[in-house]
TrEMBL record:
Gene expressing this chain: msrB
Superkingdom, natural source: Bacteria
Catalytic activity: L-methionyl-[protein] + [thioredoxin]-disulfide + H2O = L-methionyl-(R)-S-oxide-[protein] + [thioredoxin]-dithiol
Name of the protein in its database record: peptide-methionine (R)-S-oxide reductase
Organism field: Aliikangiella maris
All residue ranges annotated as the MsrB domain in the record: 2-121
The keyword DNA repair is annotated on this UniProt entry: no
Keywords recorded for this protein, A-Z: Oxidoreductase
NCBIfam families for the chain: peptide-methionine (R)-S-oxide reductase MsrB
EC number: 1.8.4.12
Molecular function GO labels: peptide-methionine (R)-S-oxide reductase activity
Length: 121
């Protein structure tokens, strides 16, 4: 266990990024957030998403239609009796959320706010 990371993160951010938990819908700081800038991994500060690709999906979590090239990795997730595509940080492999095929351009990255750090432009 990385004690420095555990001390850096909130208890919920630790559960989400390290234990694949999910924050409650409509509770995250970035769900209805619309400032211009960049979204980075809260664990390692890797640049993941641009505000240019963020949209309001109404799902209760920040949604993006595209990640920065090679910024994320995908895994098949069979938890909770369903098959989904898990999205993790491409650098440190922290759990970020899931990817679905129902976004405005065919993709919706549904990402936990506590897994993100925002950098304003």
């Amino acid at each position: 266990m990385n004690d420095d990371l555990k001390n850096k993160l909130s208890p919920l951010a630790w559960k989400v990024t390290q234990e694949q938990a999910t924050e409650p819908p409509f509770s995250g700081e970035y769900d209805e957030f619309s400032q211009t800038g960049q979204y980075h991994c809260v664990c390692c500060d890797h640049f993941l998403f641009s505000s240019d690709t963020k949209f309001n999906s109404g799902c209760g979590w920040p949604a993006f239609f595209e990640s920065i090239e090679d910024a994320t990795k995908e895994r098949i997730d069979h938890s909770h009796g369903m098959t989904r595509v898990e999205v993790v940080c491409g650098k440190c492999e922290a759990h970020l959320g899931h990817k679905f095929s129902d976004g405005p351009y065919g993709t919706r990255y549904c990402i936990n706010s506590v897994a993100l750090a925002f950098h304003a432009k």
